[in-house]
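By convention, the token line describes the chain's fold. To illustrate:
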Amino acid sequence: METQNNGRILAAELVGTAVLMLGGPGVAIISGGGVLTIALGFGLSLLVMAYVIGPISGCHINPAVTLGMLLSRKINGGHAVFAWIGQLAGGIGGAAIIYGIQSGKDLPRGQFAANLWSGDYYGLGSTIVVEVILTALLVMVVLFTTTRKFAPGMGGLVAGLTLTLIHLISIPVDNTSVNPARSIGTALFADPDFEALQQLWAFIVFPLIGAIVGVILWLILDDTRLEDTMLAGVPGAAGVRNTLDKVADEID
């Protein structure tokens, strides 16, 4: 069995998350692209990095995805911790690079592609819905791409297209997070008048809740046993699983 190298995992996730920042918020800030352009920037960044750093760290480049992988026991605690450190550093580092590039034209920071629910966006209620549901979708897709039944070599493409779709849906709602590291990085550099730091908690809490929902959806659709995941000890989880099994048996 290959020995896990936590240092390489940290480095890979740092680089990958920084590239995601450049391809996503960077496109929005530097080129001023529209919804489609920004969505493609995020999706292509994930797609490319999946094939580059995927063999090293799994290319989560998103703390919510890492949480989903940990809860499903596809990675261990050490992998998760070092991935989270790399993602946080990559998110902030990528935002700093964007800021450095932007400063070449002496432009005001403005919103700096930060996530918000106020102003022209849809409000906190809509933000909760899209962040939970769309993060769940992303995590569920990633979990399925890591099963033996999934076509080898296609995981990066499917994950990248999923992230593109997510941004097409939700950029108008809250500028799309589904990724706490991305939200933290941009919030730190946004103009204080936009209150991105005050609203940041929502873009940490609800994507992480979405990750848990994504694992549950994966368990409902896949034949993986609940006992093989970290959700086995959650009160009521076994009961829900048994009820679903009974319903499935009755349909058959």
The CA atoms of residues 136 and 211 lie 5 Å apart.
